Amino acid sequence: xxxxxxxxxxxxxxxxxxxxxxxxxxxxxxxxxxxxxxxxxxxxxxxxxxxxxxxxxxxxxxxxxxxxxxxxxxxxxxxxxxxxxxxxxxxxxxxxxxxxxxxxxxxxxxxxxxxxxxxxxxxxxxxxxxxxxxxxxxxxxxxxxxxxxxxxxxxxxxxxxxxxxxxxxxxxxxxxxxxxxxxxxxxxxxxxxxxxxxxxxxxxxxxxxxxxxxxxxxxxxxxxxxxxxxxxxxxxxxxxxxxxxxxxxxxxxxxxxxxxxxxxxxxxxxxxxxxxxxxxxxxxxxxxxxxxxxxxxxxxxxxxxxxxxxxxxxxxxxxxxxxxxxxxxxxxxxxxxxxxxxxxxxxxxxxxxxxxxxxxxxxxxxxxxxxxxxxxxxxxxxxxxxxxxxxxxxxxxxxxxxxxxxxxxxx
Amino acid sequence: xxxxxxxxxxxxxxxxxxxxxxxxxxxxxxxxxxxxxxxxxxxxxxxxxxxxxxxxxxxxxxxxxxxxxxxxxxxxxxxxxxxxxxxxxxxxxxxxxxxxxxxxxxxxxxxxxxxxxxxxxxxxxxxxxxxxxxxxxxxxxxxxxxxxxxxxxxxxxxxxxxxxxxxxxxxxxxxxxxxxxxxxxxxxxxxxxxxxxxxxxxxxxxx
Lengths: 411, 207
Known about the structure:
The complex is a heterodimer.
Chain A: H1 3-15, H2 18-50, H3 55-70, H4 72-89, H5 104-183, H6 186-211, H7 218-246, E1 253-256, H8 258-275, E2 279-283, E3 290-294, H9 295-312, E4 322-332, E5 335-343, H10 351-354, H11 372-382, E6 386-391, E7 397-406
Parallel strand pairs in A: 2-4
Antiparallel strand pairs in A: 1-3, 3-7, 4-5, 5-7, 6-7
Chain B: E1 7-11, H1 15-27, E2 31-35, H2 38-43, E3 51-56, H3 64-73, E4 80-84, H4 89-97, E5 100-105, H5 110-143, H6 146-156, H7 161-168, H8 172-185, H9 191-201
Parallel strand pairs in B: 1-2, 1-3, 3-4, 4-5
């Protein structure tokens, strides 16, 4: 029977041990002998006590049993034994293997019936067997799938952990870069705090002086005190803005007016630009749609572009140093984008340098870390926008970024 | 003749600092005039009396240092007190060399500023006086004829009338005549007085 070796293989696979399989195989081949022998003994006993001769039925029982448990091979063995026993015990001359011509049809009929029975039994068995096989196969497949699933889960967790670690590292790097950029503006930042402090001290001393007069001008004192409060608030606003930029905080999206973001950044860079004789021009139309984004991150991008632009103009004549920041809206593929450009008239870049500018650790500045633009680009891309550079018609370069406009409150 | 009231000029682009500094100096009893830029100050007519300038170093366009240079080039002498955001030593050295009175770092002590302002005004007052004196001397000197100027220089150099006459190839009598005119026109009371005047005018004899 062709299915047998396969069955054995499959069994082996499942059980995984050949030793356990051997008794089953042996039993399959011994069963026909035992069952036919039992049939002969039963028939003999019945014949002796009841004078009945149920040889045919008993033999069929033995054959069916053998075929059922053992398959076609053992069934055939049972048929052979049964035919021999049938011939020996039932067909004249009885107790002899020789067959009379007259008894031949009976023997053939018996053999034929027996063969049909074992065929049917074997077919039945084969069907059952293949069903079991399919089931076992399925069990193996399920087992494999479960294992694969587990492996996948482990991998997934690992990947998630790696992603989280990467995100954390990126945030750290962005923070370092932000603080480094701010470091270039320390003089500017100190100035922004010192201005109101100077005014506070001046006004307070003026108050003391006025109040020591015989007829103090209280109106003047009131004005001075009002200005003191305004200046103290101005100083604390500057400090709050710097703290916000310097601290590590998770990204938080809100609706932002890019004009305000530009204003915040220029407030920090103003003094530095004066010191370097750079004129900063802005052209951000009122009513430009808002964008959804993290204020600190977008401030970081602008701060980076502004500081880069100022640095690019170090080598050119003071009177010609102009940094222009423009904003406009653009419709692209059905979405409205806000495009902000920061244009300098500095030394500019060669075209082959353009793409390298955004690579990590690539810097044209002697003290540059080379992270600013790489981080800026990843920030803008995370906001669904694009950051790129263009060479100017005249001198210098323009850095542009686009962000999708948002008019609704949904973030 | 009464001297005009001293005035303090403040040039600072920051409104708060400008207003508060103005109030502080005014509270010390001085006249103040403020300007938002160096350009605005340059357009303003220069004061008659003693004055000083409180000047922010860092300003857009024309900086404090630029203004100082501009004033020196135009021959305008006014003591300058520089105010700066952060103590930049090379810059302060340059400013002091160019004639600044004081260099203060923000936020400065009010006392330091007021002291500096007073010192600057005193300095300007005496400079004014000196400048007035020289101006007057120069006016008198302008009235001399070229010949008289030549004679004055030689006389002030200590030459005798005879020697002067020899030098200029003329008679001793003519020199005496010139000398009397010079003393009168220059309103010099003695020869020593005349010598001092030539020194102040910078017209001493080169031999």
